[in-house]
Amino acid sequence: MEKERLPPYTAYPQNINYQPYVNPDSSNTQTVDRKVNYSVPNHATFVTIQQPGFVNQHLIYTGPLPESHTLLAWLTCIFCCCPLGLASIIKSNEVTQALGRGDVQTARIASESAKKFGHASLGCGIFINFLVLVILIIWFTVVVPSWRY
Questions:
Q1: Which residue from 19, 7, 17 is spatially nearest to 38, judged by alpha carbons?
Q2: 113 and 92 in contact (C-beta within 8 Å)?
Q3: How many whole angstroms separate alpha carbon 106 and alpha carbon 95?
Q4: Which has the higher per-residue pLDDT, 36 or 146?
Q5: How far apart are CA 81 and CA 93, in angstroms?
Q6: Partner of 110 at 20 to 30 A CA spacing, among 30, 66, 85, 125?
Q7: Rounded to whole angstroms, how far apart are CA atoms 145 and 141?
Q8: Using CA atoms, how far apart are residues 106 and 94, in angstroms rounded to an integer?
Q9: Quick one: CA torsion of 121, 127, 133, 139, rounded to 10 degrees?
Q10: DSSP 17-85
């Protein structure tokens, strides 16, 4: 029985024959077709090598799940420094999304960032409110009494 041969392609070696192969370790003597490659000397052979890429390493995290600091983010955005509070809201949403995917390491990093942005917003808000209070005190004790009606 002769096998049907495919038309030759330029990207593959031309002389590939199949010969019966008997597994010597097997108690059963079935024959299996194996591929034998007879290379031709002036024939171009194409080799594909996989490029190195990102290998996803799963780290095991054994601690408690990180907090999202959503309340801190929203309150500091409303009452303190809005740009830093907005960054804190974005990071707290990243925590929620990462926990939904099961990526605890990314959630922990985003949680730390949300907490830092929230505290920075709170600090800026306290500083700005203190500065406004000092300016108002100076305004009403020095500038307003000097006005002549």
A1: 17
A2: no
A3: 7
A4: 146
A5: 18
A6: 125
A7: 7
A8: 8
A9: -120
A10: EEEEEE-TT-SS--EEEEEEE---TT-------PPP----------SPPPP--HHHHHHHHHHS-HHHH
Amino acid at residue number 42: N
Cα-based angle 127, 130, 133 (whole degrees, multiple of 5):
150
d(CA 19, CA 118): 72
d(CA 17, CA 4): 11
Whole-number Å distance between alpha carbons of 49 and 45: 13
Tell me the pLDDT tens digit for each residue of 21-68: 555 555 555 554 455 455 554 545 555 555 566 555 555 666 788 999
Give which of 94, 104, 26, 92 is closest to 61, Cα–Cα: 104
Separation in Å, CA 130 to CA 9, 75, 119, 141 = 79, 18, 16, 16
Q: Is residue 94 scored above 90 in pLDDT?
A: yes
Q: Beta strands 16-22 and 31-37: pairing type? A: antiparallel
